[in-house]
Design goal:
Length: 210
């Protein structure tokens, strides 16, 4: 009996890992087109279909406290697009929010084991570090604080232009806002104790510090 139960649990674990990885792969394929929706319209439409597939596959089995805020938030995304004075700017923000909601659904539905949770933390922290690095090389640094001027002079002067960015760089405030969004995740990673995974804890602390 115990062998059968262990076999069933192993199968469930494999299935859960497969669904988790598949959901992240679908979102990873859709991410570039949703972050820059007007760069390639056909790709954006295909990415939206992938997000719909994720919403259907990873819809919550049981009601939770998150569902009502997510529903209201989704309705407000549509309302924001309809009433926006500049739809081109609002579109990229809206598709980015849809990508975020899809990521939340995958994490909330399939992330039921400590191993998957740890992998999810590493993925999200890696994304945050990637966004920060890209932001450093695409930000127009304006020296406002004399104390920081020597540090800003060490940064690259050739601004990396991202798709759909016609201003030749982003503002430092936008980069700061991106980093602040990841703060709750960083604090969560620091709070969790991996007693049996000391190397993992050191890695998480390192990523959060960066």
């Amino acid at each position: 009996m115990s062998y059968r139960l262990k076999s069933v649990l192993n199968r469930l674990s494999v299935t859960q890992n497969y669904r988790f990885v598949m959901g992240l792969c679908l979102l990873g394929i859709a991410a570039p087109f949703l972050l820059f929706p007007t760069y390639l319209l056909f790709g954006t439409l295909a990415a939206l279909l992938l997000v719909v597939v994720v919403f259907v596959m990873y819809r919550p089995v049981q009601p939770s406290l998150h569902h009502l805020p997510l529903l209201i938030f989704s309705v407000m995304i549509v309302a924001a697009i309809l009433v926006s004075v500049d739809p081109d700017v609002t579109l990229s923000k809206s598709t980015g929010l849809l990508l975020g909601i899809g990521t939340f659904l995958v994490m909330h539905r399939e992330n039921r084991s400590p191993a998957l949770f740890f992998r999810a933390l590493l993925i999200l922290l890696g994304l945050g570090l990637g966004f920060t690095v890209v932001g450093v090389f695409s930000t127009n640094w304006v020296p406002k604080v004399p104390l920081l001027t020597p540090v800003l002079e060490l940064l690259p002067t050739n601004v990396v232009t991202l798709p759909e960015n016609t201003t030749g760089g982003v503002q430092a405030n936008q980069l700061a806002a991106t980093i602040v969004i990841f703060w709750p995740l960083l604090l969560t990673a620091l709070k969790i104790s991996f007693h049996q995974h000391k190397v993992a804890r050191v890695l998480l602390v390192f990523l959060t510090t960066v």
